[in-house]
Amino acid sequence: MGETISYSFxxxxxxxxxxxxxxxxxxxxxxxxxxxxxxxxxxxxxxAVDTTTFSGSYTIQQxxxxxxxxxxxxxxxxxxxxxxxxxxxSDDPNNPTDEDPDGDGDPDDPTDTDLPDDSDISLxxxxxxxxxxxxxxxxxGETISYSFxxxxxxxxxxxxxxxxxxxxxxxxxxxxxxxxxxxxxxAVRMAMVLLSWRDDQLQLRGNExxxxxxxxxxxxxxxxxxxxxxxxxxxxxxxxxxxGRHGDL
Length: 249
Description:
Immunoglobulin-like
């Protein structure tokens, strides 16, 4: 956010009479996020073109980034020699659709500005051995606490964020919480779950952990994310210190 879109305006007198007091209005280019400067054009002869009088600027909002585009349309108004208003809705010369909703033979396509998005997510998974009897070793029934930190590292708002982990399933593990309904860019959420030791886990799973990126949708409904298996750099028989992160997912 904070970046801007610049708008230029080309006003052409397509009629047979001179127009005076020509102004432009644009509902997007108003405070606090937009501005439109210049004008009015005092007089414009038939066939004359003005490309320098009016200019506009708009500061991009998060909702625009999530939508992936900014759409707007301006209205030009001038006065003919009889004192009557002459108006035209703006057309985007880069839009080949050439829609003509008012049927006057003059295309009136809105101006669409595409905004390249950057959707990304980060998941950190940390573990702590809970030495319930305090002997410094792992026994059946003792647990491991896992904390998850989900961060939106992209530029779009993410929705419906979930986490899956093949280790944290019944009967010895559980993963609770979620989905995260919405996570804005830069926002962080944390959660903690417990896993009970089982005899074959002491022998077969003590040296590794699975770390899964969550499945989530970006602002355009696209699914991103993936999974990685990472070494667990702790020896089961070494004494451990209690620690952990707490929060809600």
